[in-house]
Amino acid sequence: MKPVTEKYAGKNLQFEIFPFEAADGFPCNLIHVSGSTKNTKDPVLLVHGAGVSASIFLAPVNKNIVEFLLEEGYDVWLENWRASIDFAPNKWTLDQAALYDHPAAVKKVVEITGSPKIKAIIHCQGSTSFMMSVVAGLVPQVTNIVSNAVSLHPVVPDFSRFKLSVMVPMVKQLTDYLNPQWGIKAPSLTAKMVNTLVQLTHHECNNSVCKQVSFTYGSGFPALWRHENLNDETHEWIKSQFAAVPMTFYKQIARSVKAGHLMSIEKKKELPDSFVAAAPATEARISFFAGGKNLCFLPDSQVQSFKYFDNLRQNYHALRVLPDYSHLDVFIGKNAYKDVFPLMLQELRVN
């Protein structure tokens, strides 16, 4: 394992990398971030989504989520789980992350900090897989969770359903991975075919990776953010932030979308087949955040999950729908430090 440490630099922050092994031996790592403000509050673990890395939380904006949390006195930890592009491409599943990666990461943070309880901010497939850990009772040390975009109920646009049911089975016969970097360099015939299709259908900007990301993850133009929410530097920065995502992921998310809720795929005895079949084995408070204009996972994804948890324990959890945001711009948007992060802070403060 050779993390790309150059990604974790700048803005007067200090980064310390703590390697750890997932329960099946996969080499992951934690990035501990510190700034000029003394840590006076609980550790907070940030968990990235699919086909990116922990650096996705370090966008070149006026104030990113890491800087915001540090200024508030939180002890900030970033998890690079097996989906991170800092590692060699691998055919991961949400089951593997839920059973092996996240519990080990939480245990490591508790071990290093000495804090018996921690908080978590989780995004996209970092959120789905982490919530699988939560529901299965594998991370009891986590008492407060901010989940963005999707958790237990993946709801996608109609065209995404078509892609998952029709296009994905076709594409997986040709390649084990999709990679937004194909917009910069397409090394194979399949990559060239995908890149040509993207160039023919996506005309929303001149950023080839941005367009590939929209094809890879959603149905919008773009799918993961609203261009008006990004500054120019961030729009250029995303070229280096996305890479390979395995077709194994799409197989599992397709099954879950069809079922209407998260489903396991590897039949591990520690994980339920359905993650809504029994009451969650957790006392954690969960705040469900959703971009009102999300074209990757529709906001109803988080609305349904909130209703599910609220029905089990009324007036305990929270739902925040952000009308002017999409998917990832919740974190990398130029004004997220004013529009979004204070709301997340309110939820983190509850317990």
UniProtKB/TrEMBL annotation:
Organism domain of life: Bacteria
Protein name: Esterase
Keyword terms of this UniProt record: FAD, Flavoprotein, Oxidoreductase
GO MF entries: oxidoreductase activity
Family: Belongs to the GMC oxidoreductase family.
Cofactor dependence: FAD
